[in-house]
Amino acid sequence: MGEPILELRGVNKSFGPVHVLHDVDFTVRAGEVTALVGDNGAGKSTLVKCIAGIHSMDSGEVRFAGSPVHVHGPREAAALGIEVVYQDLALCDNLDIVQNMFLGREQLRGGLLDEAEMERKARQTLASLSVRTVKSVRTLVSALSGGQRQTVAIAKAVLWESRVVLLDEPTAALGVAQTRQVLDLVRRLAEQGLGVVLISHNMADVFEVADRIATLYLGRMVAELPAKEVTHSQVVELITAGRSGDLGMARPEAATV
Amino acid sequence: MTSTPTAGTRPDDVRRHNRTALLRRLHVAGPCTRAALAAELGLNRSTIKALVDGLAAAGLVAERLPVQRSGAGRPSLLVLPQPHAAVVLAVDIRVEQVAMGLVGIGGEILGRCSWSLRRGASHPTEVITRVADSFRPLAEELATDVVGVGVSVPGVVRQSDGLVHEAPNLHWTGVRLGERLSAVLDLPVKVGNDAELGALAEHVRGAARDAADMVYVSADVGVGGGVISSGSALRGAGGYVGEIGHMAIRPDGRPCYCGSRGCWETEVGEAALCRALAIPEDSPRGAVVAELRELAADPEVAMRRLGEFAEWLALGLVNVVNLLGPELVVLGDLFAVLPAAVVDWVGHAVRERSLVSRAVGGTRVVTSPLGRDAKLIGAAELAFEPVLSAI
């Protein structure tokens, strides 16, 4: 198999005296959904923000498509092809779908906004994801349902030909039907060959779409396993205790030696 | 039409027939002006008006002034099918996942969901329960009534009652899928073979709209084929046509789960493709797609790495073309992601080696524009068949 698309080795991050990430290793492969799970405060969002260039890492190595990179800001991450869809979505309510998808990266023609081209591309992207639930790409985001907003945010990643998409709790605020539609979209993203990271608290969601499950426990990556090889309860144990049988952290007596 | 050949035709039947024909035209080919409808269906303009008015009153179509005018005079009204007016549930059962979609008139997918299955460990009851569970929230969100269900299954299916004789990759035998789903969902259910439905989808909405004789060949875990001959599906006794993945093409080849050895599937199925790409055989679908996408960037490398795979694909296709004489071969599902260089080479090889291809003037080999959704769309078309004549 080719190189992982994104590889983190020995990442450390502290906020003042609080050591949030301890020597974290994390791998994202193209075409797979990697679920990143962990309790509140385990460091999931911090890890994502480090990848996205929002936080700088104290130490550690990042390789993207096989070569070492240093990401110093969100723009650099986006230029590499790393797109993050945040919990609170970061969409502008007073703008329409096209304006949101091109926000900060508007296309110009002769010094003016090329509205027709942007609209065409937005429509094409939504169609490539079989998203037909949005009536018009000129609908204001404020008029969309939670699921539709999530769809727009994810479609934005596809539009920019991202190679890695990180989704921070994409289904947290959604109803049953919309959760399923978003998960279906997550799966189709991976099936198009993108590397997808799904942060979720919901084990049902995780097992529905994930190929691999990476568990953070108190800032440490305790296990990174194929979803087929672990059970629901093993993952819950890893999240809450950092170990499950032979999986996860070594037993304390062994660790103290 | 409801009349039997021995009975006379009453005006009622004629009107119903015309209404169905008009609705089917809109469903398949999309919005159209009244004038064009009259020309295409060979009906009087006043007849078209009466039919369209009837459909509009039932909420099945809406009329609008066309944006672009053609020629002088009062513009003919554009007739648009209303997707939400009649919605069917399409279910695509695969070896490793189930996908569901609510599909409206005109073929729009209005809502969808999917979930993973553990390979070979998915009991029919589990799938049926999950379909029923997932169906309600989807339908509630759309706030429409669903009028029928179409299901695609990777196996041998009796269409009359939806009995799945055998779905080897799912380890299903003798499952009364149609009856059981119908009882749970309280809706009419039609079940079809996945490759046959893929062919139907390509014929109605995909690459084969203008081809009366075509073969759809798709690779998921296994390899299957659907055949459209003279514009309609070729099924054979009991609907067993289509297991082209089990053509024996390599006597010294790998054993196949079907009991034979050297089946085409063992050389061009998903596992074979993974071997050709030098990635683990159980790689997730996306990883295979990612590898293929990367290869597509460099045609030379693509041909070098997939040369042997392409050879086996061409060998099988030559047999298929010689046997069935299609004008078009549509490669679906995983085959649809093959690098263009490989598909071109295979098409060229088929035209060069197949006697029948030379006779029909060169069989074209193309990839499916519908990709992974082909079987879902085919299942929706299957469900729409009885619906269009009943509403």
TrEMBL record, chain A:
GO terms assigned for molecular function: ATP binding; ATP hydrolysis activity
UniProt entry keywords in alphabetical sequence: ATP-binding, Nucleotide-binding
Pfam families in the cross-refs: ABC_tran
Top-level taxonomic group: Bacteria
This protein's name: ABC transporter ATP-binding protein
Protein species of origin: Gandjariella thermophila
Domain named ABC transporter: residues: 6-243
InterPro entries: AAA+_ATPase (IPR003593), ABC_carbohydrate_import_ATPase (IPR050107), ABC_transporter-like_ATP-bd (IPR003439), P-loop_NTPase (IPR027417)
SMART domains on file: AAA
Keyword Nucleotide-binding: yes
UniProtKB/TrEMBL annotation, chain B:
One example GO MF annotation: kinase activity
Gene3D superfamilies found in the cross-reference section: 3.30.420.40, Winged helix-like DNA-binding domain superfamily/Winged helix DNA-binding domain
Keywords assigned: Kinase, Transferase
The protein's name: Sugar kinase
Source domain of life: Bacteria
Family the UniProt entry places it in: Belongs to the ROK (NagC/XylR) family.
SUPFAM superfamilies associated with the record: Actin-like ATPase domain, Winged helix' DNA-binding domain
Pfam annotation, one family: ROK
Organism of origin: Gandjariella thermophila
